[in-house]
Amino acid sequence: MNMIFNIINSMPGAVAQGLIWGIMAIGVYITYRILDFADLTVDGSMCTGGAVCVMMILAGYSVPVAMMAAVIAGMLTGLITGILHTFMGIPAILAGILTQLALYSLNLKIMGKANQALNFRNYDLAISLQYIRKFPIYQNTIFVIAIFTIVIIAVLYWFFGTESGASLRSTGANPNMSRAQGINTNFNIVLGLMISNGLVALSGALLAQYQGFADVQMGRGAIVIGLAAVIIGNALFGKIFRNFALRLLGVSLGGVIYYIVYQIVICLGLDPDLLKLLSSLIVAIFLAIPFWKKKYFSKPTKGVNSNAKAE
Amino acid sequence: MLKLSNISKTFNTGTINEKLALDNLSLVLNDGDFVTVIGGNGAGKSTMLNAISGVWGLDSGSIYIDDCDVTNMPEYKRAKFLGRVFQDPMMGTAADMEIEENMSLALRRGKRRTLKWGITKAEREMFKKELEILELGLETRLNDKVGLLSGGQRQALTLLMATLQKPKLLLLDEHTAALDPKTAAKVLELSDKIIRSNNLTALMITHNMNDAIKYGNRLIMMNSGKIVFDVSGEEKQNLTKEQLVELFSAAHGGEFANDRILLS
Description:
The complex is a heterodimer of chains A (311) and B (264).
Chain A: H1 2-34, H2 42-58, H3 63-86, H4 92-111, E1 115-117, H5 141-161, H6 163-173, H7 175-180, H8 185-211, E2 213-215, H9 222-237, H10 244-267, H11 275-297
Antiparallel strand pairs in A: 1-2
Chain B: E1 2-11, E2 19-29, E3 34-39, H1 45-53, E4 60-65, E5 68-69, H2 75-78, E6 82-85, H3 99-107, H4 121-134, H5 151-164, E7 169-173, H6 181-197, E8 201-205, H7 209-214, E9 218-223, E10 226-232, H8 233-237, H9 241-252
Parallel strand pairs in B: 3-8, 3-9, 6-7, 7-8
Antiparallel strand pairs in B: 1-2, 1-4, 4-5, 9-10
Helix pairs in contact in B: 3-5, 5-6
């Protein structure tokens, strides 16, 4: 009985955290699904967003300004990975890892130490885990993050429908064709990485306010959680959410479900130390499913190229 | 309109696989030329088209389109002059995007891509009309993902996309080689129709001697990165397959017995 009460009691927090990570997962969706670029920068840029936001607030800047600065800092991290990949020819995954590692040092330098606290009593924060219950709805943290999510989805839906956004989608879908149609694929890769990491940093800025501190470890494994949210969203809502905006919503809900399951598993008494192992396992299995499907369950089809030589 | 002067390209320089793919090649195309290109495997046909497209830089030589020096222009910028159809039907279209999205991307070739909405209503109507020309029933499937189409349909669509924005030069890189004979013949007819009705300048690589003779007003044969035979006008019209095969064997010095060109 007590356990069920604990689970129910932890739900608002799980939903709030899930929505925050959902914004991060939307960033991952842009690189991983749209650009076909496994970007590991996010493990570093998540913390960069939180660190910049906290330090700006501590330095006396208003919360909106601090969050804007966090987004810009995140976009710069994407720019760096993009330059490493396009201009310097470093493979996607390695480019992300290099930026991520460099950011560990930078994040320490931004904060001056490994952890910086932010007291919600002294500042007018956008969200906080203290604002979850018994607050008017427009101040309620879940409501505020939901608004952020909806605005982000709306803006992305608009952007990816424009000429420029469509060329970004085609860059991920078929770079050869894109160049043949006069699209600067390198520019689009950099642009996509900047948008993605901007969102990840925004998520980091929200998370830091929510938990009341920024920590140099806060982005560790973020890419796996982001991928988990993308995969859960696709697995549960892929069949019904065909529209692009709904797909992004599915990713955000994927983040929420991830955190609800996470809370339940903790309340059930699983050793929290094992959670990252569990996350990795789940993501690995879900990533393997399409491969297995293709390898073991697909019917042999007549390939387009099979009769090429027989002319 | 196209001028290649002394272009050379070596792949894998300094390794055991070093290959001189283009050897001081020069070629001038006139406006409205429809040139068929033949040659054995490794003769440098595709390499020449890739050089024109700017897939990589040249070792030496220069490329002019009209009076514009494009030698060092990146591939995506050069695209405004060129329409391209590839051998692989998967290469010319984005499978995960809708037919109309693919076409709207192609319609904006050579133009700035702004924050205006990607497809307009008027364009949609225009796409329908253009698709009707293909006679494949695609005009009712504008919102279908291109991945759902067959190889032949995708090649026909790629061809249409390459010419939506009238290119200065159309490059067809064995674009029917991966199709079954019937579909190949249809796509080829369609290419001819589009080239003639728009009065396009085109380079078409083919492995089929009959097609090389039947289509176009000029024929070039390549071997070892060079043009070894260049014929146009009446002389080309009067070519027979036998003459061509003879020329071909002469150029290859007998080593061409294994080439799949014999099969055609």
